[in-house]
Design goal:
Bound molecules: glycyl-adenosine-5'-phosphate
Largest sheet: 7 strands, mixed
CATH superfamily of the largest domain: Bira Bifunctional Protein, Domain 2
Strand content: 25-35%
Shape: globular
Strand order of the largest sheet: 3-9-10-16-13-12-11
Helix content: 25-40%
CATH architecture of the largest domain: 2-Layer Sandwich
Oligomer: single chain
Distance between the termini: 33 Å
Number of domains: 3
């Protein structure tokens, strides 16, 4: 059996599969779509929901000192002044005058560094990235442009180096509240969910009677007017984050940073991602709020890229909110008899990026059969706890009492498992359809079922078949799809 290796398939295979089999569609496709905005189809919505539920439960059930929150998308505009997003949430952009294409200046330079590294010039690559970091920190945008020119970086479309100046571009979307469009009514669509947690720090601490160290977890939409939206759902303008802010005593940030780094890496592996396809990447250029930051990167078909960030945010956010709101953001620590503004370690995962990671990791093409009958089998290998559909009930024929047996199994299991019932078409084609959406178990009802009260389970990954008593089905499948299988690895 030949398995198509990860480098053989491309992002195009994944996008086509996601569209064709009900996972992800371009937004408002009948109007030719909206760039960097996507909709999740029936199986995509299930997969994403399972992923978010799993994260929520892992955060809240496995950590007694983490509680949940669901804050609004709209927040008081001063929130974004305090957080630094009004002044610093910018990307440096540059336009090519010939192609009229816009790029992120730092991405152009990083791509050049990757090229140098691939050519065995690792030292040159490192020096280039370091110099870019220095110029950006010094806000020397003319220097950044010069770096692009000096390194012979050209527009991939026009092939020229006819660049505009580098300018800062704020990524926040704004809109107006109320019926009068005046500046005073301008509000922003949140660019991160974290600020909803910070402004509620004292509400949660007091009402849930939390003691430092403790965490607040939240899942929700975030919006960024990305300059370059590319690579499918990797960089979207509307996306979902799963964030947790962990409030700690000042001075303990290194310990807790390492603690959450290890936990989050284990979590990705527990989803079924091989360790060699995950890595840590320390930030060269720190965000405006962080004193240490690391990305967890996954090996996508287009290279290792960030799926989650872990940031040591010091007391930057709470301190700034305290200053601007004039409300105390302090915690009295009875153990040391002291008041302080807690420091924060943040774990910030993108639900859409993790979804994309699961698709890339799960997409398998392999040759099955022999001789003339060799054909390619495509299937999605999701962890059963995450699979959109857990089992398909497939009576062999639509007569002779088999549908009745199938319907009874369906009715017994439907309250606990997401199922599909299908009783027409060849059984081979029905198995194929389930493989394509990643259903881990197919349950075939045949003539023997009438006599032996048993059915055949066909396993997605191995295509092996096993005879099982109908009365044992529920416990067998529930055991396999339980999130406990993932929790046990954490
Ligand atoms: N609160 C910290 C924060 O927002 P970030 O590194 O900017 O940090 C965290 O974002 C995560 O959100 C990223 O690791 C990524 O998974 C996801 N993310 C960020 N921008 C995104 C975008 N445009 N499209 C999809 N996911 C995005």
């Amino acid at each position: 059996m030949k398995v198509k290796s990860e480098i053989d398939f491309t992002i195009k295979d994944i996008i086509a599969h996601a569209k064709e089999y009900g996972f992800v569609y371009p937004s408002s496709e009948i109007y030719d779509g909206l760039q960097a905005v996507y909709d999740y189809g029936p199986y995509g919505a299930e997969l994403k929901k399972n992923l978010k539920d799993l994260w929520w439960q892992a955060m809240i059930k496995l950590n007694e000192n983490v509680v949940g929150l669901d804050a609004a998308i709209f927040m008081h505009p001063l929130t974004w002044k305090a957080s630094g997003h009004v002044d610093s949430f910018n990307d440096p952009m540059i336009d090519n005058k010939d192609s009229k294409k816009r790029y992120r200046a730092d991405v152009l330079i990083e791509d050049k560094a990757a090229e140098l590294e691939a050519d065995g010039k690792a030292d040159e690559a490192q020096a280039l990235v370091k110099e870019m970091g220095r110029l950006l920190d010094a806000e020397d945008l003319a220097g950044v442009k010069q770096l692009i020119i000096d390194n012979g970086i050209k527009c991939p479309i026009s092939g020229t180096a006819n660049w505009t100046d580098v300018r800062q571009f704020n990524l926040m979307f704004s809109t107006e509240v109320g019926s009068v469009s005046e500046d005073a009514n301008k509000i922003y669509l949140r660019p991160e969910t974290a600020q909803g947690i910070f402004v509620n720090f004292l509400n949660v601490q007091k009402t849930a009677r939390m003691k430092v160290p403790f965490g607040i977890a939240q899942i929700g939409k975030a919006f960024r007017n990305e300059i370059v939206a590319r690579q499918f759902i990797f960089r979207m303008r509307e996306f979902e984050q799963m964030e947790m802010q962990f409030f700690i005593r000042p001075g303990e940030e290194k310990k807790w940073y390492e603690h959450w780094k290890a936990i989050r890496m284990k979590w990705h592996q527990a989803l079924g991602i091989p360790a060699e396809n995950l890595r840590f990447h320390d930030h060269d250029k720190l965000a405006h709020y962080a004193d240490a930051a690391v990305d967890i990167e996954f090996k996508f078909p287009f290279g290792f890229k960030e799926v989650e960030g872990i940031h040591s945010r010091t007391d930057f956010d709470l301190g700034n909110h305290q200053e601007l709101s004039k409300k105390k953001m302090q915690y009295f620590d009875p153990e040391i008899n002291k008041n302080y503004v807690p420091f924060v370690i943040e774990t910030s995962a993108g639900a859409d990026r993790l979804f994309f990671m699961l698709l890339c990791n799960g997409y398998k093409e392999e040759e099955v059969g022999e001789g003339e009958k060799v054909k390619t089998r495509t299937y999605l290998k999701f962890h059963p706890a995450l699979a959109p559909v857990k089992a398909a009930i497939l009576p062999l024929v639509k007569k002779d009492g088999l549908p009745e047996i199938g319907r009874k199994i369906f009715d017994d299991l439907k309250y606990d498992l997401n199922l599909i019932y299908e009783d027409s078409g060849s059984i081979g084609k029905r198995y194929t359809r389930q493989d394509l959406i990643g259903t881990p178990f197919c349950i075939a009802v045949d003539y023997e079922s009438k006599d032996d009260d048993s059915v055949t389970i066909r396993y997605r990954d191995t295509m092996e078949q096993e005879r099982v008593k109908i009365s044992d089905l529920k416990s067998k499948i529930e055991k396999e799809v339980s999130i406990k299988n993932i929790f046990d690895q954490l």
